[in-house]
Each structure stands twice: as structure tokens, then as C-alpha cells.
From TrEMBL, chain A:
Keywords (A to Z) from UniProt: ATP-binding, Nucleotide-binding, Nucleotidyltransferase, Transferase
Cross-referenced Pfam families: PAPS_reduct (PF01507)
Cross-referenced Gene3D superfamilies: HUPs
Keyword Coiled coil in annotation: no
Keyword Nucleotide-binding applies: yes
Protein name (Swiss-Prot/TrEMBL): Sulfate adenylyltransferase subunit 2
PANTHER family referenced in this protein's UniProt entry, alphabetically: SULFATE ADENYLYLTRANSFERASE SUBUNIT 2
Automatic annotation (TrEMBL), chain B:
Gene Ontology molecular-function annotations: ATP binding; GTP binding; GTPase activity; sulfate adenylyltransferase (ATP) activity
CDD domains linked: CysN_ATPS, CysN_NoDQ_III
Listed transmembrane segments: none
SUPFAM superfamilies: EF-Tu/eEF-1alpha/eIF2-gamma C-terminal domain, P-loop containing nucleoside triphosphate hydrolases, Translation proteins
Annotated EC: 2.7.7.4
PROSITE patterns on file: G_TR_1 (PS00301), G_TR_2 (PS51722)
Every Tr-type G domain range: 1-215
UniProt organism field: Flavobacterium cellulosilyticum
Name used for this protein in its record: sulfate adenylyltransferase
InterPro entries recorded: CysN_GTP-bd (IPR041757), CysN_NoDQ_III (IPR044139), G_TR_CS (IPR031157), GTP-eEF1A_C (IPR054696), P-loop_NTPase (IPR027417), Small_GTP-bd (IPR005225), SO4_adenylTrfase_lsu (IPR011779), T_Tr_GTP-bd_dom (IPR000795)
Length: 299, 414
């Protein structure tokens, strides 16, 4: 038996939030993207309910444009922990004519995920969707609540949010509404990486340096892939890169890096002068890109 | 890493956003792309200096109007600590936002424009920090560059604030004074030597020296049960663990405890955190506790050390800060959420409105949004509580509108 438990304030806060979710909602779900933040959430959920299993399923909204390494990782994690995984495909919404695929140079399925997510929420009647968004990621997210209420249409009313005081979380909602829950709201990118290092959490290989076929556009490193539009004059080259954030192949840019282990990655981030979402092509569309997507129900 | 939560409040004119931007810039917490965005935006607006306020004002409406609304969270870190700033506007119509920001902070920065001195807004910020018992307050006298770094001006403001401090009921509060210029950066992270008459700490030096104790660290151990963990697996067939966050003080294996409200006596046999077991846990830990005998414990119950029982009442005297546009009136029904416990309640009476400028109370029968007043509440079931001044976590509650489900107000039990 060890003696005194040393508390990590951010970890303790996240575990507290998970336990509030299971107590205040009937049908929670964890939104799992295969990225480091949602993988960290899975570890925190394990801690919150141990020795019981994680008492809710994972939901992956699959754009069909994922990095194959992410999907492989996802399936292994789910198997190892004995979790329930629900996958819903953006392709289905396209086939049903609910959404129209973007075309052209900057086309991405990133914003199409919203429809599939809202459909899945309705299909399973989820009342709480737990996500790995952090307030430090993006300025619209800096105002996001820990329990963030969405209406029947999945919309975020940012001017009319419930105040959150002390540790008191109010999860009371009406039928049809749901709540987005962000247990790692107060973590920074560095906090997440330090935690992954400390806990020795396994993450997909694309977070570490590897050789990849890429091309350069607007000063960013894009993956060469059938899912990514490429002009004829955009030349493919091979580079040693890694990813700091993992979304779709069409909206996530790589960074030059030789960081091959978690401690090297942590060292790199400590010295980095570019923010994580600096490599997110979807945020560069306009100054208010994220806020507009969130109002429409984007996660 | 230690985490220190800071509350800031103020209007755009105080240079608060500039101060925060300066803290981020001087601690190398602003990344190149964010800095470029600030440069681009400042240039577009025709400014000849970097407008750091653009780093902190998040929402479209705020950028359009050039004001800060709501509560924004800003993060920066040094080698020693992680800092979280809860930034709120300072006008009277944002009192509720200031209360929200202060509720989770261990330290508060009150900004004063050296040219204007102590004004009504200063009173309000300080009052809220008194009411919520924020342990440390830094009075930042900003824009010293615009008053020729005058020691006399600074001393006058300090004396005015000390007079205000004399009216505070929270005598244990640590109040410190720092003259600075957020625009030039003097005394924010480093001293630039313009004020040789000041030999105290810079803002960052002061923050680095503070102990980031949990804000609930005064008093007796309180363990509100969030959920009961029953794995029902072969290995843990009979396991029954009580999951929650510990407040107030440590708890140890072997401690004699009482479960509330049933008043059942028991003993702590194990403290778990994930796969590890511990002899003792400190306040602020999210843990799972096992008890000696199989007793009926559910969410909303509270485990305390026997002999350290909190008060129990059905009628509570409170100070409420109202946050809803629908007024608080006697007879109205709300849910009181106190720790993990939620009970139906009726507003018995509103006694007064307390002026946030220390000018006293005014008789009233209702509370409008952003007003603070004394309110008597009748609960459908007695709760076990402490006075807020003795044990913050067990003395605070929120009022939830039974019709709209919104968080309509926050209360502090006397």
C-alpha cells in the first residue's frame, strides 16, 4: 500500500467531471476521434470508474478520410479495454444526399461530420456527448462551458450559456436537448502530452516522426493521398514529419520533426512557437471559423 | 505541475487585456502564428502598437464591439507553474460573470488606471473578492507610464485602496500593491527600472511565489458522494466503492466516519485511486473510498469524520448573487444544488439588496439580474452544510430554475 496520494489538479478535475456525467445523464457517449485528446479521455474515464469498466460506449464519426494508422489504433484500444464502439460514416450521409461533398482545392469532409454526429445523437438518444476539446486550442473554445447545452438542432448559443461556479455542474436539460461535456477543458496541449508521457499512454504512430509523401501549399505540409486535392504543379516530395493534431487527412497538416518518442515530442512542444491548431487547415478559413462551425453543432 | 487559477476583471480602458497579453508575450506563451494574427489585425485597424487585447477577446461580438463579455479562459505557464486566467468584464451588468470567475480562483488581480485612481468599479471588484473570500488580491496600478511613474500618484491610490480594505469583513485576505505599465511591460514580468522607488515584486514574481492551495482547503474533511461503483465482475464481485472528490481536509484509512443524512457510523477501510491503494488522500483528490460495513450510500450523501458533523437545517439564510433575467421573488420554486445533492426549494423572503460599493444595504423584496442580496430559502429536505466562510465547498450552492433548467443564481450560506 502506498502512503499519501499526491493530487494532480487537472486529472482530479477531469475524473470529477466524468463522475458527474454518469450521475446526471441517462445516455452518455464518448466522442472518439483516435486523436491524443480522446485517447487521454479514455484513460481518465478508466480511472474515474475503476475497478468497474467504462460505463458508456465510444462513438466515432468516420469521415472515410482518416489516417489508416488511427483506425487500426482505435480498433486495438477498444478490444484491449473491452469497450463498446459505435461507428457512423459521413459517406452514408453523402450517399443519402443529406450533405454535399465539397469540391476544389481546399475541400474537406471536416464540416460534414456535423450532420452524421447529430444523426447519431438522435438515433441513440444520447443526452451527453463527452469530447476532448480544450479551451486553449482556439479562441471560441476559450468560452466553452464544461457542460455545454445544445438545442434540438445541435446549436450552441454562445451568448446565453449557463454560468458554472465552483465545482457545481448543472446537467438539467429538456427532452431533445443534449449536453457536450469537456472534461479536459482546462488542459493545455503541453498538459496532455506531459500526461501521456507520465502515464505511458499508447498513441497512434503518426504522432511520431516518420517518412511521408507530402506536398507544400500555403507554407503548410499536406499529405499526398487520394483524399486530398492536389494541383498539378504541387510537387510531391518525401519528408520526415509528424502530426501534432489528428483530424482528417484533408484538414490536418504535418510538421517537420525528428521527435520519435514521447519525451522528444514533449521537448519539441515546450520549445515550439507555433500553436497546435496552426496546423489545422480548417481553422484558417477565417478569424471566426471555429465559432461559426460550433454554432451549427460542430464538435 | 502546480496549477494556479487567477481571476481578472475590468473594462477595456483599464488595459486589462493588454496586461494579460503582456503576461503571455513575456512568458513566451504566445505562439508565432497567434502573434502574427495579432500583428495583422493591429495593422488592419491602423494601430501603431501591438494590440494584445486581440489575444484574449474571443467571440465575434466581442471583436466587433471591442469589449469583453462573459468569462474567457486564458492559459500560460512558466517552468514552475501552470496558470489559468478567468477573465471577465468589469461593468455592473457583468457582476454575475465576475462572481463566476472568482468562484474558481485562488488569486484575483484588480486593475486600477493610475490616471483615474480608485473608482466605483474598483469597489465592486474588491467587494466580490471579499464576498467569495478569494485569498489573495493583487492591486495592479496600471498605466504608470502616463503619470510619469509618479510615486506620489501610486501612494495616493494605495492609501485610497487601504481605506477601502478597512471596510472589508474578510480580514485574513492578503492584499498586495504593484505599480506597473502593461503597455511597456514594466513590473509585469520584469522591472524596467523606471520606478526605482518601488522595490517590491513584479506581477509574475508575486504569482510564482504564491502557494496554489486548493481553494477549499479550510476546515474539516467533506466527501460528497458522486456515484457508487459496483463492478459486478468475478474479480470484484462484492466490491462497493464510493466515488467523489474530497474537500476541506485529508482523510485516512482507519478514520471513523459518519454517512449523512442517514447518520450511519462506519470506518474507512481503503482509499483507491485507479489501480493503486493509499493510506491517506489530501483535499482536492478524486478518489474512491471503501467502508467497513455494507451500508446504503447513494449519490447526494456525504461522508464526514465522526465528531466533525456539519450543521443541518431546512431553512437557510444565504447571500445570493442573481444571474437570471427573470427576477428572484418570494414564493418561487427552484432546485438547490449543493455539492452532489439536489433538493427542491422555495424562496421564503428576500431581505435586501447589498450595494457592491460598501455603502450598505437597501431594503428589497426581490433580486434582479446582477444584484446581490440576503435571501431566506426553505428546503423540501434538510441539508448538511457549513457556513461558506468556514468551508467554501460545503457552503455554496446554485439555484436551478425548475422550468427552464438554467442556473439562475449562486448562494453562500451564512
Amino acid at each position: 500500500m502506498s502512503s499519501i496520494l499526491k493530487t494532480n489538479a487537472l486529472e482530479s478535475e477531469a475524473i470529477y467531471i466524468f463522475r458527474e456525467v454518469i450521475s446526471q445523464f441517462d445516455k452518455p457517449v464518448l466522442l472518439f476521434s483516435g486523436g491524443k485528446d480522446s485517447i487521454t479521455l479514455v484513460r481518465l474515464a478508466q480511472k474515474a470508474f475503476f475497478p468497474a469498466k467504462i460505463p458508456f460506449p465510444l462513438l466515432h464519426v468516420d469521415t472515410g478520410h482518416n489516417f489508416p494508422e488511427t483506425i487500426e489504433f482505435r480498433d486495438r484500444l477498444v478490444k484491449e479495454l473491452g469497450l463498446e464502439l459505435i461507428v457512423r460514416h459521413v459517406q452514408d450521409a453523402i450517399d443519402e444526399g443529406k450533405v454535399v461533398e465539397e469540391s476544389g482545392k481546399y475541400s474537406s469532409r471536416n464540416s460534414l461530420q456535423t450532420t452524421t454526429l447529430l444523426d447519431a445523437i438522435a438515433e441513440f438518444k444520447f443526452d451527453a456527448c463527452i469530447g476532448g476539446a480544450r479551451r486553449d486550442e482556439e479562441k471560441a473554445r476559450a468560452k466553452e462551458r464544461i457542460f455545454s447545452v445544445r438545442d434540438d438542432f445541435g446549436q450552441w448559443d454562445e451568448k446565453n450559456q449557463r454560468p458554472e461556479l465552483f465545482d457545481l455542474l448543472n446537467g438539467k436539460i429538456e427532452n431533445g436537448q443534449n449536453v457536450r461535456v469537456f472534461p479536459i477543458s482546462n488542459w493545455t496541449e503541453l498538459d496532455v502530452w506531459s500526461y501521456i508521457e507520465q502515464e505511458q499512454i499508447e498513441i497512434p504512430s503518426i504522432y511520431f516522426s516518420h517518412k511521408r509523401k507530402v506536398f507544400i501549399r500555403d507554407g503548410m505540409i499536406w499529405s499526398h493521398s487520394p483524399f486530398v486535392y492536389q494541383d498539378e504543379d504541387e510537387v510531391v516530395e518525401e519528408r520526415i514529419v509528424r502530426f501534432r493534431t489528428v483530424g482528417d487527412m484533408s484538414c490536418t497538416a504535418a510538421v517537420d520533426s525528428y521527435a520519435a518518442t514521447i519525451s522528444e515530442v514533449v521537448g519539441e512542444i515546450r520549445l515550439s512557437t507555433i500553436s497546435e491548431r496552426g496546423a489545422r487547415i480548417d481553422d484558417k478559413r477565417s478569424e471566426a471559423a471555429m465559432e461559426k462551425r460550433k454554432q451549427q453543432g460542430y464538435f | 505541475m502546480e496549477v494556479l487559477k487567477i481571476a481578472t476583471a475590468g473594462s477595456v480602458d483599464d488595459g486589462k487585456s493588454t496586461l494579460i497579453g503582456r503576461l503571455l508575450y513575456d512568458t513566451q506563451s504566445l505562439t508565432t502564428d497567434k502573434l502574427e494574427a495579432i500583428e495583422k489585425s493591429s495593422k488592419q485597424k491602423g494601430y501603431d502598437y501591438l494590440d494584445f487585447s486581440l489575444a484574449t477577446d474571443g467571440l465575434v461580438a466581442e471583436r466587433e464591439q471591442g469589449i469583453t463579455i462573459d468569462v474567457a479562459h486564458i492559459y500560460f505557464s512558466t517552468a514552475k507553474k501552470s496558470y489559468i486566467i478567468a477573465d471577465t468584464p468589469g461593468h455592473v451588468e457583468y457582476t454575475r460573470n465576475m462572481v463566476t470567475g472568482a468562484s474558481t480562483s485562488q488569486v484575483s488581480i484588480i486593475l486600477i488606471d493610475a490616471r483615474k485612481g480608485v473608482i466605483e468599479q474598483t469597489y465592486r471588484h474588491f467587494f466580490i473578492n471579499n464576498l467569495l473570500r478569494v485569498k489573495d488580491v493583487i492591486v495592479a496600478v496600471n498605466k504608470m507610464d502616463l503619470v510619469d511613474y509618479s510615486e506620489e500618484v501610486y501612494n495616493k491610490i494605495k492609501a485610497d485602496f487601504q481605506a477601502l480594505n478597512a471596510k472589508s469583513a474578510y480580514k485574513e485576505q492578503n492584499v498586495s500593491y504593484i505599480p506597473l505599465s502593461a503597455l511597456t511591460g514594466d513590473n509585469v514580468v520584469e522591472s524596467l527600472g523606471e520606478m526605482p522607488w518601488y522595490d517590491g515584486q513584479t506581477i509574475l514574481e508575486h504569482l510564482e511565489a504564491l502557494e496554489p492551495k486548493d481553494i477549499y482547503d479550510n476546515g474539516q474533511a467533506r466527501f460528497p458522494v458522486q456515484t457508487v461503483i459496483r463492478p459486478k465482475t468475478e474479480q470484484y464481485h462484492d466490491f462497493r466503492g464510493y466515488a467523489g472528490k474530497l474537500y476541506g481536509n485529508n482523510i485516512k484509512v482507519g478514520d471513523a466516519v459518519t454517512v449523512l443524512p442517514s447518520l450511519t457510523e462506519s470506518k474507512v477501510t481503503n482509499i483507491r485511486f485507479f489501480e493503486e491503494q493509499y493510506e491517506e488522500a489530501t483535499a482536492g483528490s478524486s478518489i474512491t473510498i471503501e467502508l467497513e460495513n455494507d451500508i446504503n450510500v447513494t449519490r447526494g450523501d456525504m461522508i464526514v469524520k465522526s465528531g466533525e458533523l456539519p450543521k443541518v437545517e431546512k431553512d437557510i439564510n444565504t447571500t445570493v448573487c442573481w444571474m437570471d433575467s427573470k427576477k428572484l421573488v418570494p414564493g418561487a420554486k427552484y432546485f438547490v444544488q449543493h455539492n452532489t445533492n439536489r433538493v427542491l426549494a422555495k424562496i421564503d423572503s428576500v431581505k435586501n439588496v447589498i450595494a457592491t460599493d460598501y455603502s450598505g444595504t437597501k431594503e428589497a423584496s426581490q433580486l434582479a439580474i446582477n444584484e446581490i442580496g440576503e435571501v431566506n430559502i426553505k428546503l423540501s429536505k434538510a441539508i448538511y452544510f457549513d457556513a461558506y466562510n468556514d468551508n467554501k465547498s460545503n457552503g455554496a450552492f446554485i439555484l436551478i430554475d425548475a422550468a427552464t433548467n438554467t442556473t439562475a443564481g449562486v448562494g453562500f450560506i451564512k
